């Protein structure tokens, strides 16, 4: 009888030989889908109208908030790209496919990466915002990320050549780090993280380095909850209340407002019931003081999102954020199926699979109207990228960091040996991704202009928000 360390032929199991076989399996996929094929972007004649996709993804959102969504998207082609993950998902379904599926980030663009604190209070660099996470072809995340650097680079007035280099750096960094992860055990990969302070220290721009180091220091000086409490609340008698800042933060009024706030309270209470015992003990020391609707992001505008303020008996605050969990934009475009029928659970499970460390209050729930939600802390020592101050060298360094973080996330949910075997060690794959990114940025510009026309024609409403 063989044990778990012995192969069927009686030989002791050799991890290195197994990794080599899986690497060769990845190499073999190139015969079916050559690496060079990934440069292709040729929209088909029957490509779905991007404006129709935008309108479809707005169905079921809070109608009064839709003008904010479109106003934000018209700010630039990059803002449009951030809010139109559904359009690119439909387009990616028409591109060459390796047939290698894993848990995808889904809305993989450069603004969905950054620094945040782990439950152990260590600051790490990682992926954030998993609303669209779903199983699918691994290369889709990489293509969306690389394209986002070209589109953002153009917005910052960098040359096409420089923007193409950003995209190339994303793919090259992904390649190099995936090869490193392919040599580790599954447990070593699971423990791996990217230390934010060390990452910043690697940068060559002393001004940016100093700026980011100050941000890290500031993030660690006090809890985000105390900072937000001072900024976002006022005292009403003995009770703390969230300040209204319409149309982005508000307490809805009238009968509709009562319904929404009652729904939000139900969401909060049901969320508490689903927590593990130790989290229940922790949050039992806090009571719910206030709830408000909060408009978030670009792609999530119009979904039911909000914040709840909890206070301890001794006056310490906790802010939780609830977000409506809708179907992933990937679901209609992939063959893979999610194991989760609850959309909130899908997001939470995807986040826990891909992140090196997740929010300790992360959880999911639903209301009485068949709407799904997930909850987390509002902010926790987050350090977001500041594109406005980045020079081309900073953008290149950031592209490498994002490629690294994506490789780490994919190595957790896929087989890094197979992926590394497919990508190989030369530049063919990175060259293809860079070419695709330029082509898709051109497509994004065209779609953005179509949106502007639709706004002029009155097909898409916009608000007066600056």
SSE blueprint:
Layout: H1 15-32, H2 50-57, H3 66-73, H4 77-82, H5 85-92, E1 101-104, E2 113-117, E3 123-127, E4 134-137, H6 138-155, H7 160-182, H8 186-191, H9 196-201, H10 206-221, H11 224-232, E5 233-236, E6 239-242, E7 249-250, H12 254-274, H13 277-283, E8 286-294, E9 305-312, E10 317-325, H14 343-354, E11 363-366, E12 372-377, H15 392-413, H16 416-423, H17 428-456
Antiparallel strand pairs: 1-4, 2-3, 5-6, 7-8, 8-9, 9-10, 10-12, 11-12
Helix pairs in contact: 1-16, 6-7, 6-15, 6-17, 7-15, 7-16, 7-17
How would you sum up this structure, described in words?
The model is unreliable at 1-10 (pLDDT under 50). The chain has helices at 15-32, 50-57, 66-73, 77-82, 85-92, 138-155, 160-182, 186-191, 196-201, 206-221, 224-232, 254-274, 277-283, 343-354, 392-413, 416-423, 428-456; strands at residues 101-104, 113-117, 123-127, 134-137, 233-236, 239-242, 249-250, 286-294, 305-312, 317-325, 363-366, 372-377. Helices cover 48% and strands 14% of the residues. The protein is built from 17 helices and twelve strands.
